[in-house]
Design goal:
Number of strands: 0
Oligomer: single chain
Largest sheet: none
Structural class: mainly alpha
Shape: globular
Radius of gyration: 19 Å
Helix content: over 70%
């Protein structure tokens, strides 16, 4: 499967795509695109942008702990992100404070903890920089296999959870009254979001992960008139931005970081969609 996807990537009329690491990078981005698109729509709908930001910044601590313990960061980073996500949901459910307040406290704690660990070990600090800015070009076949597994789990989860999550997002009390297991689906969604966010850190880095979720979904909201249409537009923006960002960043005349280029193209999509929405609104008036 990986070889097939890499072969398809090599058929693109760009010299850069003949390199195996570029083909693997594009394959990883294609696998991430549908997940970040739908999760971005749900994050906007459920007002959880700050939540995803807190999880992404926990990558600092996850990577640092892994390097100190002699474990691979690709193992410790998702595990720590999942723990942070579950902690946010748990404290929010058992506290009188708002979800944003709880997220803000835990966000501050994980960032401070990560920076404290990194500051004590200079060798760890150098290795963490890769995750700060992202480096999708280092993704290997084993990472792609994990992404395939995550995509399958993502699809299965959304088949069963999508309508329930929408119901919970609209009104959790009413959803509970109608038999929806609110706590269970919130915890499962937090785990899934944490895993996708952590995998996305490889591509665009800690600083831009939230943008990878939010910008395509925001552009889609400007254009789409239905919930289903919003997802497909977000998928189009996410996929095209990822592919174009990867290819453009590899050009000698460009020479920019892949993650930053991907987000800039997504922002261009958003700007175009905002203009379109303004013009469409003016016509209706």
């Amino acid at each position: 499967m990986i070889d097939l996807m890499c072969h398809l990537a090599s058929l693109l009329p760009f010299e850069a795509m003949q390199a195996r690491f570029m083909q693997q990078a594009l394959t990883a981005l294609v696998l991430l695109a549908p997940m970040t698109a739908l999760l971005g729509v749900q994050v906007i709908s459920f007002r959880m942008a700050f939540f995803s930001d807190a999880i992404s910044h926990s990558a600092f601590a996850g990577v640092a702990l892994g390097l100190m313990a002699g474990l691979h960061p690709h193992l410790t980073m998702p595990l720590f992100g999942v723990l942070v996500g579950l902690a946010v949901i748990s404290v929010s459910r058992h506290s009188s404070l708002s979800a944003d307040t709880v997220t803000g406290v835990l966000f501050s704690a994980v960032v401070a903890f990560g920076l404290a660990v990194v500051s004590r070990h200079n060798t760890v600090a150098r290795d963490v920089q890769q995750f700060l800015y992202g480096d999708i070009l280092t993704v290997g076949e084993a990472d792609i296999e994990w992404l395939m597994i995550l995509l399958i789990l993502f699809v299965v989860f959304q088949i069963f959870a999508c309508n329930r999550l929408l119901y919970i997002g609209l009104h959790p009390v009413v959803a509970r009254a109608h038999g929806v297991a609110v706590a269970r689906w919130q915890y499962l969604f937090a785990v899934l979001l944490a895993l996708v966010v952590m995998f996305s850190v490889w591509g665009v880095g800690v600083l831009l992960v939230t943008a990878l979720l939010i910008v395509p979904a925001a552009a889609a909201r400007n254009v789409a008139s239905t919930a289903g249409g919003m997802y497909w537009w977000a998928f189009l923006v996410s996929l095209s931005s990822s592919a174009a960002g990867l290819i453009l960043s590899a050009q000698p005349w460009m020479g920019t970081a892949t993650g930053a280029t991907i987000i800039l193209i997504a922002c261009a999509w958003f700007a175009a969609s905002a203009v379109w929405a303004a013009l469409r609104g003016r016509r209706r008036d």
